From TrEMBL:
Top-level taxonomic group: Bacteria
Keywords attached to this entry: Hydrolase
Keyword Hydrolase in annotation: yes
Cited InterPro entries: SGNH_hydro_sf (IPR036514)
Protein name: SGNH/GDSL hydrolase family protein
Amino acid sequence: MSRLHKVLIVAFCGALTVAGLVLIKLAVSGLLHWPPPAVAAGSEVPSGRIRFAVLGDSDSQSYHDTLMLGDPGDRGGPWRATTWQWTEVLARLRGDQIDLGEWGAWGTGKYRAYFDEAFGFLARTPPKDDYRYNFAVSGATCNQLMGHPLREAIRLVELMDTEPQAWRGGIVLIRIGVNDIGAHDVLDELSRDWTASRPRALTNACVDAIGEAVALIRRRHPDTYVVLVGVLSNADGSNEFDKWQSGREIANIDTGMGLFDNGLRKLAAADRRVYFLDDRAWFRSLWGTRDGQGRPLYKTVHLSPGWAITNTSGDDPHNAIVSDGHAGVVWNTLWTQHLVTSLNAAFGLHLKPITDAEVIAFLRPSFAASVPSGRP
């Protein structure tokens, strides 16, 4: 066989390979009629609003997701219908100014997501009911911002890349880390020594992963703002009240949490479009802290006659935290109020502040639903 003949055969085979890949891609997207990786049941979103995306864990995944959060005892149990996540509060109170994307069923299984990416399609996993730009997933750890199977930051940016102009002046909020450094065993190590090697390694890895996500967003979308939310201390949860009963232990935990927050502060200080939101400071401003001996000495938040919200766990809205350990409807509503104020201050936005009257009006159905529990 002549050299020319061999060259022609190789070229022909290469052309067949390319054509085959194109046909496969067409078959996947057209002939097989598979739905796109983000299958929505939502309506068109009005223009002129600020795009708002979320990366994170269960602290930001919408509570009214029934695909992933199918247990009826989740997120408020018997009061789930009126127990709202902060993203859901934001959409309801400032949906005319903030665009979280259509509400719908988004995402696929992880293997389908790998396949979609391999052929150049948008991908996300797992399937859940949520806003299109909310990539937060319950149980996510910091390495899932850039790593498999979630790749939250990478997949969000790929979605943003399809409409780069729409994300000019948009916002990406990153709230993650508590699953890395908030576990009981990690806090216990910190309580004995805030310089302990394992918590320090977890903290550094987490801050590095968040830094990579920020760099990716800022590189591909330089006119998009980024909000970095600090980590909460699970030592403030009522299930841990009988632990670490000394001022020194609690101080050590707080110092250890501070290492994480300081890492985020450093990222924010390096870029005027990146803002650090101190979550523990906000919590302390409402419910306070333990006393000097490490004993619970939390305050009660009074919003309206009969609405006394304590730092306790339970699905009734009089509790700051629902039974499954996540923020309750009052916590999320007040946090959303604080977030809007912070965004205006940080980035010079002109979002309409959420008034106390709006907070009361929004929460009224939640407290009305709790009346059969025997509380006023």
